[in-house]
Design brief:
By secondary structure, this protein is an alpha+beta fold. 26% of the residues lie in helices and 29% in strands. The protein has 6 helices and 13 strands. Strand 8 and strand 9 form a beta hairpin. The structure holds 2-oxoadipic acid and magnesium ion.
């Protein structure tokens, strides 16, 4: 770690205020080029600590930048991991206030809920599938706090991987019999198809992203708890949304989910 405790706390406050007040900031590595990976995750952890202290509840975890399409769109090469708290969750069919966000984008996600915790090292696709209780289709709304959605990997990790809202579909489907690699994903905005993909776009198999998260947490002595939602990462590029837009996602075998922006 190259930053002091005080710098970490100051950057956490800086990024969380940008989120809560819906204004953008310049990327933090511009001012702290010496920042390392542990510093980036420490800033993210401090943002979570601030939210928990305010009474928010941790409800899930997410993997980000797990598909080629996303890595290419954002110009990074490595996945990142973040957290989801209660107020990020929007009910299926619910409305999202654009005024609370900076420059939201939507992406199609395959969500996992585990029946028992898993902890790395050594987790793989099989470990995840054996522990999976059910899967759900999800729309994630990402909203980087960085100007023009431009960042490097350390800056985006500190910013909780652009997390802001998510909507889960109403069907909880066991994974037995589903081949998550060939699961088709169709996302529509205002009735027009804007993104198409298949599960294999996420690291060859969406469960590989969840295994990577478990291995990442294992290094920190943490695990993926049971019963928590885990988003495995956008299957396609993210698509910008504005007031008046309605987004619908269909995932083969997992049903559909929709939300609108007001
Ligand atoms: C980073 C967050 C990416 C995903 O699923 O890839 C993410 C970003 O693109 O702003 O949530
Ligand atoms: Mg995502």
């Amino acid at each position: 770690m190259n930053l002091t405790q005080q710098e970490i706390a100051q950057l956490a406050e800086h990024l969380e205020s940008a989120e809560l007040q819906a204004h953008d900031v310049t990327k933090i590595t511009d001012d702290f080029p010496q920042m390392d990976w542990d510093d980036a995750y420490a800033i993210q952890a401090d943002i979570l600590r601030r939210k928990l202290a305010r009474g928010n509840k941790l409800v899930g975890l997410k993997c980000g930048l797990t598909s080629r399409a996303k890595m290419k769109q954002m110009g990074v090469e490595t996945p990142c991991f973040g957290f989801l708290v209660d107020y990020f969750s929007v009910p299926e069919g619910g409305e999202i206030k654009v005024s609370e966000l900076i420059h939201p984008k939507v992406e199609p996600e395959i969500g996992f809920v585990l029946k028992r915790p898993i902890r790395g090292p050594g987790c793989h696709v099989g470990t995840v599938l054996a522990a999976t209780d059910f899967l759900m289709a999800g729309i994630e709304i990402i909203d980087s706090r960085y100007r023009d959605f431009k960042f490097d990997l350390k800056s985006v990790i500190a910013d909780n991987c652009s997390s802001s809202r998510f909507v889960l579909g109403g069907q909880a489907v066991p994974q037995d019999g589903l081949d998550l690699r060939t699961l088709g994903v169709v996302m529509e905005k205002n009735g027009e198809i804007v993104a198409i993909g298949a599960g294999a776009a996420v690291l060859g198999h969406p469960a590989a992203a969840v295994a990577m998260l478990a291995n990442h947490l294992g290094k920190r002595g943490e695990e993926i708890p049971a019963g928590t939602i885990v988003l495995s990462g956008g299957v396609t590029e993210a698509v910008s949304v504005a007031v008046g837009d309605r987004v619908n996602l269909r995932v083969q075998g997992l049903g559909s989910v929709s939300t609108s922006f007001i």
